[in-house]
Amino acid sequence: MEADPIAQTPLEQDANPRPPNIVIRGYGQYYDVRTPEGIVRCTVRGVLKRARRKTDPVAVGDRVEITLTGPGEGVIEAVAPRLRTLSRRARGTEDVEQVILANPDQLVAVFAVAEPEPHPRMLDRFLIIAEARGLAAAVCVNKIDLDPSGELRRIFDPYRAAGYPVIETSATTGVGIDELRAILHGKVSALSGPSGVGKSSLINALHPELDLRVGEISAVTGKGRHTTTATTLILLDDETYIADTPGIRQLGFWGIDFERLDHYFPEFRPYLDQCYYADCTHLTEPGCAVLAAVEAGAIDYDRYESYRALRAGTDDR
């Protein structure tokens, strides 16, 4: 996603390096900002609110300049340009952006092998959003202790074939935690996925001192109970942040160009310039190289069906 064009402040016109202060949490009108000297609880300068009417004036992950107003208190004066965002449409609006996380480096989609049952179409949505935002993406398959035979994990094989790193973990046994830590190191990562898949448990395994509250799976519905209500940016080490994002059962698309949906499926890309028609939608056209690759087994059929349903506007999940 392009750099944020909205709020033209002196900071945004400055060629100096981005400020070290990073917003790690928001509470209505207040934001916790991590600075080299510690956490500062801040409000937002009114001019910023007026300049950013179509997006959040400040969001978790923003790099900001602040002025101290007292011990542990301050005012956010300016926000550095957002290089990319994870966003959705603000409720009740058509054109206002709600920023879930500003300036992430990658998205790690966390799904469980069971309890709750994984839904590949939802995983596809997360990965499409990452691709559209120019984010690196990985898949974390959690709760593998519930799948001793490995049979349930086969549903994630097409994502390996598409080129995504797939990390298998168990927050209960500790399997895969070191591999997950290595993928996260040195980046700002969004851990996203449906409720109940064990995001908080994984974060606890990565950083035991946090002791985040872990939700239970509803015995009635099988769906996870939400344990996180707002994005929180957690410092794992001096170079590594992870965002514990709210559980999202239905994720809407924001700013996705559906004319380029085929480019958001990495396994399609080798075939896109081989179609007979330059504007091929890969649905019914003769001479479509993508359809031929699906028929030959080079592209996973279920992944293609996910694309087809989204491109045709028939996927309501």
From TrEMBL:
Residues 102-249 form the EngC GTPase domain. It comes from the Bacteria. Its EC number is 3.6.1.-. Zn(2+) binds at residues 275, 280, 282, 288. PROSITE patterns: ENGC_GTPASE, G_CP. SUPFAM superfamilies: Nucleic acid-binding proteins, P-loop containing nucleoside triphosphate hydrolases. Residues 93-251 form the CP-type G domain. Its cofactor is Zn(2+). Its main location: cytoplasm. Keywords: Cytoplasm, GTP-binding, Hydrolase, Metal-binding, Nucleotide-binding, Ribosome biogenesis, RNA-binding, rRNA-binding, Zinc. GO terms for cellular component: cytoplasm. Belongs to the TRAFAC class YlqF/YawG GTPase family. RsgA subfamily. One of several proteins that assist in the late maturation steps of the functional core of the 30S ribosomal subunit. Helps release RbfA from mature subunits. May play a role in the assembly of ribosomal proteins into the subunit. Circularly permuted GTPase that catalyzes slow GTP hydrolysis, GTPase activity is stimulated by the 30S ribosomal subunit. This is Small ribosomal subunit biogenesis GTPase RsgA. It comes from Sphaerobacter thermophilus (strain ATCC 49802 / DSM 20745 / KCCM 41009 / NCIMB 13125 / S 6022). The gene is rsgA.
